[in-house]
Design brief:
- This protein is of the alpha+beta class.
- Helix content is 30%, strand content 17%.
- α6 crosses α7 and α6 crosses α8.
- The longest helix is centred in the C-terminal third of the chain and has 20 residues.
Length: 321
């Protein structure tokens, strides 16, 4: 019986990382390693699209308002300005908290683009997913809703598409009528979605005297939720100093009750009596901002009372994202 000749495999060319195409997860990796793609270069690609970006809106104008519109405000719109000029036939791009039918985006019949902010995203980087949605909406046919998808790992982020000098001025609405410029032309599905959204919307007002602070009205009491840009540990120390000194409220009957964590920022929350309106807290909020600035500048160790106050605030902290 003839001896079998030893089998030799042809050596595959070794490709550089930047040259490796995307293939099916169970296919051999094109790099020539002999492993499946998902266990080789596909692992890094999957990690790139699932790794959570803690502050997805960092570097954008008014980061606190981006966070508020994503997590706290029911109905609001903002006109966006792109770094590049708008494509022909696209008169405007508008960010909205939410769109009918939970669409990620909509190219209206007049060519304008609406982008929804409060949507589930497929990757760990909201900014990249929104940028991908925006790019697809700019080239979609007028009258077309844009469906969600996972953005390419090497796709641009909002920070690369939006003008860093562009104004970001949220307009808070009492309802979602901005969805349908011509209500008579809307479909029954959109009309039903509008009615459901309006019924669930909590009355909300943006304060004008301080950044990223939003008053809202609920059946039992009103609240002020204020997105702050300071490092969390420094902010909690400052809030604890004010709380221990009895200077953390916004007027009679108001109380600092805790905070949210959202997209890398901290959002202190105050309970307000039912009769206290957004106008009523404008001046107290501005005065509190001055007290907070002084407390933030202090680097002395916390006193026992201040440490207890900080512990109470930390225990009442809720993470939204």
């Amino acid at each position: 019986m003839a001896k079998k000749r030893p089998q030799t495999k042809a050596k595959q060319p070794q490709l550089k990382d930047g040259e490796i195409p995307v293939v099916g997860a169970r296919e051999p990796c094109p790099c020539g390693s002999g492993r499946r793609y998902k266990a080789c270069h596909g692992r890094a690609a999957a990690h790139a699209v699932t790794e959570l970006v803690q502050r997805p809106f960092e570097g954008l104008p008014r980061e606190g308002d981006w966070v508020a519109l994503r997590e706290l405000v029911p109905a609001a719109t903002v006109e966006l300005k792109l770094k590049e000029s708008l494509p022909e036939g696209v008169p405007s791009v508008t960010l909205a908290t939410v769109l009918p039918m939970a669409w990620p985006a909509l190219r209206r019949s007049d060519g304008s683009v609406l982008i929804g902010l409060q949507n589930d995203t497929a990757s760990g980087d909201i900014s990249r997913d929104l940028a991908d949605t925006l790019q697809r909406a700019l080239t979609a046919q007028p009258g077309t809703p844009i469906q969600g998808r996972r953005a390419p790992a090497d796709g641009p982020r909002l920070q690369e598409l939006l003008d860093p000098e562009g104004a970001f001025e949220p307009v808070v609405h009492s309802g979602f009528e901005f969805w349908v410029p011509d209500a008579e032309q809307s479909t029954p599905e959109v009309t039903a979605s509008l009615e459901r959204a309006n019924a669930a919307a909590i009355p909300t007002v943006k304060l004008s005297g301080v950044d990223a602070a939003y008053w809202c009205e609920t059946p039992d009491k009103n609240h002020l939720r204020w997105v702050m840009p300071y490092p969390e540990e420094q902010l909690l120390d400052a809030l604890a100093r004010l709380h221990a000194a009895g200077r953390s409220n916004l007027g009679e009957g108001t109380r600092l009750v805790g905070s949210f964590r959202a997209h890398g920022l901290t959002v202190p929350v105050w309970d307000l009596p039912t009769g206290v309106t957004a106008d009523d807290v404008e001046k107290p909020a501005a005065e509190f901002a001055e007290r907070l600035a002084t407390a933030l500048a202090s680097d002395t160790p916390l006193s026992p009372d201040e440490r207890r106050a900080r512990g109470g605030l930390t225990n009442r902290q809720v993470t939204l994202s």
